[in-house]
Design a protein that fits this description.
Elements (H helix, E strand, L loop, with lengths): L26 H8 L8 E2 L2 E2 L1 E2 L10 H13 L10 H21 L6 E4 L2 H16 L17 E5 L8 H10 L2 E5 L9 H7 L4 E7 L11 H10 L3 E5 L11 H4 L3 E5 L10 E5 L1 H6 L10 E4 L4 E3 L13 H17 L1 H20 L4 E3 L11 E6 L4 H10 L2 E2 L1 E3 L4 H6 L5 E5 L6 H17 L5
Parallel strand pairs: 3-15, 5-6, 5-7, 7-8, 8-9
Antiparallel strand pairs: 1-2, 4-10, 9-10, 11-12, 13-14, 14-17, 16-17
Length: 447
């Protein structure tokens, strides 16, 4: 699927209509895709790299970083500021990227705000709500104000990026933070959600896919409970947007955060989806140039969304590269990617479950999951597991994965997580399983 450097948004290898694509990915096609990812051809510790850490950050096809270079070589200028040709061209590229990414998640152009990452997107929401709670933003912003007696509901599955900002907002406003717990397997206690979400609940914030377990949350059920009490919904889409077909309108959420570097894009770029009417009513998070209509020495008036949340010089080349990544994903097909990862995930989970001394975390097989497998090995610390796997060229994530409360609920301090993407093969999974089978013997455990 290599794109030409003259036009990094146009593919010369795969057809653009999904109807002409094969029904499912397989090892042969994935092996061809891998040629677009030069880093996957390198050696680590003298052996070929097996990259199973896409849950942390994905690798990038060459067309993505070529797109950034192409932008700098041909169009580099400040957007929304100049009247000269380069500035106009750069602005067109910048806004076309917004259109492309918005279409990818089922949103309108004015409903996608560029941020540095998903963490900033979630903080944007909480700080904007905090500003509304302080009386900023006028009458339109009062709907976002929080105070004593109001409740914010999260879940025990959350990444710290969708927990700590809400903790801080509760502290700043006097609101109460509550959470929906998980059971001993890590499944969300939906049987308790209806009693935890009450008429006092103003916000329900939850992950679409657990970054630790890879399990898919019942979005429809949580949105329905929130709607019943008039609460706003905030979705963490970091692990879903790269791996599943996502349509924010079909999901019916009010906000969603996502991160470019997990979906083949560059670092330093993420996004916030928000319903247009809500974004326009929210007070700004950052203030300065390019987000105003008028300024006097006493006050300022702000542009509508998304620009009211995009103060200062923007991430233009990264936005262009993210749109290129989205084009790549669309060409492969998100349905096909999701199906392939489901196959890889089942292969990992089944294989790991059959290795003595290995405990796979999360609900039993059959729960909806992406291609992620978290596990612990009896008697061996996850950091030692990670180093052993690295000696075999296998890259995985170890630690608490920015989800300490979830690990605590599962009765472990940390874990090892293998996570797949469209460029992984069944051979990658088998390499992991073979290496994990040798871990306890290497460390002299369980003899």
């Amino acid at each position: 699927m290599k794109r030409t450097s003259e036009d990094p948004n146009v593919s010369s290898a795969l057809p653009t209509t999904q109807d002409t694509l094969p029904k499912a990915l397989d090892d042969i096609e994935v092996s061809r895709l891998r040629a677009d990812f030069p880093i996957l051809g390198r050696n680590v510790n003298g052996v070929p790299l097996t990259y199973l850490d896409s849950g942390a950050t994905s690798q990038k096809p060459s067309c993505v970083y070529e797109a950034e270079q192409h932008y700098y070589e041909n169009f580099n200028a400040a957007v929304h500021r100049g009247a000269h040709s380069l500035a106009v061209e750069a602005t067109d590229i910048f806004e076309q990227a917004r259109t492309d990414v918005a279409r990818f998640i089922g949103a309108k152009d004015n409903e996608v705000v560029w941020t540095s990452n998903a963490t900033e997107a979630l903080n944007l929401i909480t700080y904007s709500f905090g500003n509304a709670s302080a009386g900023l933003g006028g009458d339109a912003a009062r709907a976002f104000a929080l105070g004593a007696g109001d409740e914010i509901v999260v879940t025990e599955l959350e990444h710290h990026a969708n927990l700590i900002p809400w903790q801080e907002l509760a502290l700043r406003t006097g609101a109460t933070l509550k959470y929906i717990p998980v059971d001993e397997s890590g499944a969300l206690r939906m049987d308790l959600a209806g009693s935890i979400i009450t008429p006092a609940t103003k916000v329900v914030a939850f992950t679409h896919v657990s970054n630790v377990l890879g399990t898919v949350t019942d979005v429809a059920a949580l949105v329905a409970l929130a709607r019943n009490v008039g609460a706003l919904t905030v979705l963490d889409g970091c692990q879903s947007v790269p791996h599943l077909p996502v349509d924010v309108k079909a999901l019916d959420v009010d906000f969603m955060a996502f991160s470019g570097h997990k979906m083949l894009g560059p670092t330093g770029i993420g996004g916030l989806y928000g319903r247009a009417g809500l974004l326009d009513a929210m007070p700004p998070f950052l203030t300065g140039g390019s987000m105003i209509t008028s300024v006097t020495m006493e006050k300022a008036e702000y542009l509508p969304a998304p620009m009211r949340f995009e103060a200062g010089t923007q991430r233009i080349s990264q936005v262009h590269a993210l749109a290129t990544a989205v084009a790549y994903l669309r060409e492969v097909g998100m349905d096909r990617i999701a199906a392939w990862e489901e196959n890889l995930g089942e292969r990992m989970l089944t294989g790991l479950d059959g290795i003595p001394g290995v405990r796979v975390l999360g609900p039993a097989q059959g729960a909806a999951r992406i291609g992620t497998a978290p596990f612990v090995i009896e008697g061996v610390h996850p950091h030692d597991v990670g180093q052993f796997l690295d000696s075999r060229g296998i890259a995985v994530r170890v630690g608490h994965h920015c989800a300490q409360p979830l690990h605590r609920a599962l009765g472990v301090v940390s874990s090892t997580r293998a996570s797949t993407y469209l460029y992984n093969t069944t051979s990658d999974v088998d390499a992991l399983l073979n290496a994990v089978s040798d871990v306890r013997g290497y460390f002299g455990v369980g003899k």
